[in-house]
Amino acid sequence: MRYTGPKNRLARREGMDLALKTAGSKAQARLLKKLNVAPGQHGSRGRRKVSDYGKQLREKQKLRYMFGLSAKQLKNYYTKAIKKPGNTALFLAEYLERRLDNTVYRLGLAPTRACARQLIVHGHIKVDDRLMTVPSHQLEKGNVLSFAKPSSVKIPAVEKALETKDVLLPAWLEKKAASGRMTGDPNGDFIEKQIKMRLVIEFFSR
Q1: For the chain, how big is the Rg over CA atoms in Å?
Q2: List of residues 6+ apart from 19 with CB closer than 8 A
Q3: What is the CATH number of domain 99-182?
Q4: Closest to 94 in 3D by CA, of 79, 108, 77
């Protein structure tokens, strides 16, 4: 089941900003102030030494929370990735990056992946002029993303996201105004900067 509780609690548990709150918002500012303090009444106390399994679990949880997936969804992506010959970590990262909700977020059309997911489910996003309401839809090279109707751009969260100028686009994406295009195949560079994918693979391959 996908986690629906307090998002700042997750980030503090993992000790890093998981991009679950809008950048520059008051909620993110509060998170950054307490990021090094674990949630709960004993959060300020020292933690016990983490085992190898514990390290693998924490990396898996970071990846799951970051993309807003259930444990079963992430395991399914791993199962698909391990069947392909080659680098399993790279294939797993590629499946996650190809998700429609992630791509809407990466393009800066939504402030968070959760917001992108909501836009998709509510029928605000088109893929190649076809309305798409499945957040997990796997995009292919050449796919063009755009808003389904002019009123979609007027949604406050979308307006604010589109006004942001310093969006760091991955090499495989191209953005023009309120639309974007997948110009190449995703890689794991963006994920590897935050998650140790090797430990995630070790967790699933136990």
Answers
A1: 18
A2: 66, 112, 113
A3: 3.10.290.10
A4: 77
Q: Is the dihedral of CA 68, 69, 70, 71 positive or negative?
A: negative
Find residue 176's DSSP bridge partners: 179
Whether residue 204 has pLDDT greater than 90: yes
CB 191 within 8 A of CB 197: yes
pLDDT of 43 reads: 53
Question: In the CATH hierarchy, which top-level class contains the domain 7-95+197-204?
Answer: mainly alpha
Neighbours of 23 (CB within 10 A): 13
Sign of CA dihedral 111, 138, 88, 51: positive
Q: Do domains 7-95+197-204 and 99-182 have the same CATH topology?
A: no
Per-residue tokens: 188: 């794991």
Q: What is the pTM of this model?
A: 0.86
CA distance 14 to 199: 15
Taking the domains of the chain in order of start, what are their residue ranges? Answer: 7-95+197-204, 99-182
Mean pLDDT, rounded, for 97-108: 96
Q: What percent of the chain has pLDDT over 70?
A: 88
Among the residue ranges 119-128, 151-160, 164-173, the one predicted with the least confidence is: 164-173
Question: From CA 33, how far away is CA 51, in angstroms rounded?
Answer: 28
> Tens of pLDDT along 7-38?
777 777 777 777 777 776 776 677 666 666 67
Q: Provide the phi-psi class of 163: left if phi over 0, else alpha when psi is between -120 and 50, else beta.
A: alpha
**3-state DSSP call for residue 159?**
helix
| Residue 186 token pair | 């995703």
